[in-house]
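U., I forgot to send this yesterday:
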Amino acid sequence: MTKRDVLRATFAAVMVATAIGAPAHADDGQVWGADTLTSRVLTIYADGFAQVEEVRSGDIPKGSLRLRISDVASGIVPESAILRGDKVTVREMSMRPSLVDPHALLIGALGKTVKAVRQDPRTGEDKVENATLLVLEPRPVLRIGDRIEINYPGRIVLPATADMPMPGSAQLDFGVESTLAARRGLTLQYLLPGLRWQADYAALYDEAKDQLSVNGWISVANGSDDSFRNVSLRVVAGNVARLSEPNEMATFRAQPKMAMMDESMRPPAVAGYRLYPVSKAVSIDAGERKQVAFLERGVIPVRRTYRIVDPVGVFRAAPGSWPRRGAFLRLAWDNLPNATGVGIPLPAGTVRVMALRNGEADLFLGEDRIDHTPEGGEVVAQLGRVVDVGYEARRLDYRDISRNASEQRFTLTLFNDGERPAEIEVAQTFPGQWAIFEEDTTHTRRDAQTAVWKAVVQPKERTSITFSVRITTGS
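Result:
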């Protein structure tokens, strides 16, 4: 049993005792139900939670007031709730979980007026009478006019009152002080676990033109028990620190749905995070996963390159040769803020690339996860190993020059069996202290451990890179 189930069970037991032993009258104060909700903003974080901001509007008298706000998300983190408004000070707050099942709803109706409905067996029509629910256990007892019904042969209909939370919602009770009697709006904020988002990109690569078209979606997953209707949806790029892990998302019970992002909404920076306004009005049900289109760009110039990583082993027992192996295909493009680029900061996500083949079915080339890319940054997707471009390698010489140092000589043969020139980058890592003291192609140092060579290999040709390296490890 989850903590929420325990809380609801405890609350139901308390309600039973209260309903039986207390007089049947409403608490003093005001109840603000769904009809007082004027707007709701749902901000979802990739870490598995959301921030909900609601604006409620109603008449507030001057002085002390018990304000009960219903139809709040049932999974709310109560400690995160903040209520604010002009000329209003909050003195205390408590939370009441929702009445989520028929039995609990009947408990809440004890001593109140309900509708007793039964069908006339001769005509089949419903007969409706006002009744008072006197007893619930072991069976309902109703007072209808001047009679008491113990085994009522019909159904009980409850009125939908403002102080009755909707199933799957909670209620917050606030003790407030107001210095002004007026109708005004109050802002309620709270955190809600179980929601997360991710960015997904679908790219179509035109090999003949070296161009790319990119479509981007924000995939929102609602793993909470709460549904949201016509909310303004935003997502935040960045990892926000929290002291406890959010609840795991529930399994999606619905297929992804599509919506469209407002193209006029751009992602502003807030304290170093990036805020993406996704939609001004979207609905997402409990357990639903929805995809919202936020990007559609075509004719982006793209650079196709190939990468070879650690083609040789530099330890003493390494083999003397390495057989033919393919290089990694990489596509790169600039995120420029003009017609030749995407034009907005891109959140980190998965990019999937298809090759455009005119007159034939497109071909999936691979997928990669890209980092958050600001305007002007470079997007690089490494898609997988190919067969037409790659290398073979041999170690030509190895000798120890001391207990911790060696000198080695290698040659790499780069091949291109394709139909167009291949720009190839070779990255080799070395342990300890190293120095390349002889080579036929000049390298650059990417970092303290990596040497990089670059070459362009023409179609149906081979190119070699030969180098000697001195490696010192230990002390």
